[in-house]
Design a protein that fits this description.
Strands 2-1-5-4-3 form a 5-stranded antiparallel beta sheet. The two termini are 23 Å apart. The protein is built from 3 helices and 5 strands; from the N terminus they run H-E-E-H-E-E-E-H. The chain has helices at residues 13-16, 42-62, 106-124, and strands spanning 21-28, 33-36, 75-80, 83-91, 94-100.
C-alpha cells in the first residue's frame, strides 16, 4: 500500500490514541484497505480489511431478522477472549474496523467512531469499482 493509498491513515490517530485500542483500518466494503493507523503494518491491514468485509456481509444478511427488510446495518461487534473488533459503516461503500483489548471503554470508542464518521463522511466514502463487461460496478 503506497503512501498515496494510506493518505487517510492520519485521521485514525484519534482512535488509536485511546487506551486499549490496538489499531484501526479503513476499508472498502469489497475488502480493499484504504488506510490504516500507524500501529498496524500493511500486511495485517490488508488481511483485516479482507476479513472485515466478510464479517460485515454477514451483518447485512442478518439485518432483516432484526427489524424490517430495509433495516440498515450501522455497526457490528465481535467479542473474543482477548479483545473486540468494531466494524462501522462510515460512508458509501466504506467501513472502519477497530481492534481493541477486552478492557476498552466501548462507549467512548463508539462515540469517537461516530464523530469521525460525521466529520469526514465524504472523505470516507469509496466509489464502486468497475468490474468490467461481465460484472458491472459493485455496490
Amino acid at each position: 500500500m503506497t503512501t498515496q493509498v494510506n493518505r487517510l491513515g492520519w485521521m485514525l490517530g484519534d482512535l488509536t490514541s485511546m487506551p486499549d485500542v490496538r489499531y484501526a483500518v479503513l476499508l472498502a466494503t469489497d475488502g480493499l484497505a484504504l488506510g490504516y493507523s500507524e500501529s498496524v503494518d500493511r500486511d495485517t491491514a490488508d488481511k483485516v480489511a479482507a476479513s472485515t468485509s466478510g464479517f460485515h456481509s454477514i451483518g447485512i444478511a442478518l439485518a432483516p431478522y432484526t427489524g424490517g427488510k430495509k433495516n440498515g446495518l450501522r455497526q457490528v461487534v465481535a467479542e473474543f477472549d482477548e479483545g473486540l473488533l468494531f466494524v462501522k459503516t462510515v460512508g458509501h461503500n466504506a467501513l472502519l474496523a477497530v481492534s481493541t483489548t477486552e478492557t476498552v471503554d466501548a462507549e467512548i470508542l463508539t462515540y469517537r467512531m461516530n464523530g469521525l464518521t460525521e466529520r469526514l463522511g465524504a472523505e470516507l466514502s469509496s466509489p464502486a469499482r468497475d468490474q468490467g463487461d461481465d460484472g458491472g460496478a459493485r455496490p
